[in-house]
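G., before I forget:
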Amino acid sequence: MGLYAYGSANNADRCAHAYHSNHGDIAYYNTSTPVTKCAVLKPNSDGSGANVGNLAATCTSGTTTAWQYPWGLAGHATGINQGANYHTGFFGYLEYY
Amino acid sequence: MIATKSQKTWLLFVAALAVAVCAIAVLALSNESSTASADTRTASARPIHLAALNAAPSEQAVPFLEHDFLARSGYDAPKGRLLGTDAAGSQVIGIPRNGDATSDAQGEFCVIVTQAGQPLRGNGACDSVERFNETGVFLTLTRGNPDTDEVVGVLPDGVVSVSVRSSEGQAHTIDVDANVVRFPLKGAADVTFDGPSGAVSQPIAGGLNE
């Protein structure tokens, strides 16, 4: 997995987990600083590509946790910092079978 | 339950990602250990200001609530309630969440929005009960398509309408239907409304490209 700086405030830093073939749920949250973030299953190991299964990404602001439920789909669980600034304290959670 | 017997014997893996350094810790938990942690959770005593959660379950089928991973992820599935269904069949579900084996989250309220035509898949967002009671929960569902991306919000009891404002300051009012609002993301920068403790302004998460 790695951190990829896309250099865009609206599509910025991404962190993609290893490939899994059968996901249950993905969560992405930030406990230290309210920031807009997204949770989404992506086809590529750098967290890029069209959303797997054409399932919408979940993006949310503030301290709210973003979840996506790509039940049974394969890919890379990806968290995205949509904020304009560098932030620390992000955490992700995923479940796969 | 949705999981087959063989699925129940598979290992559950939980991964924590830390974006700052992208270090990863992977925990391998058997279903038995996950269940044990779920059994020791303490339900939140804080009331959620959403009367619909106290209503009888909907007669309309809500397949998403049958997922076995809900309990492992800290959701209180039996208390989940269908709040609304749009014309395409996408369901909005309200559900309490009380934490799980990898999180100290206690007393959350979550919104789940199922994918139209795929009732076992979807999107969600959780926030503390305290914040939900003041500001509601909003999530943006995006494929990077301005024509289909949308925002879903669930408001606490008593909020009758919201004002959706564009970045240019233009605003239009949307009535809250049984605690739920859905509107296109296109042109929406923030949403304001009269909350239980005064005026609330919530920024709207933007769309996501590939």
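The CA atoms of residues 79 and 92 of chain A lie 7 Å apart. The two ends of chain A are 19 Å apart (CA to CA).

More on Monday.
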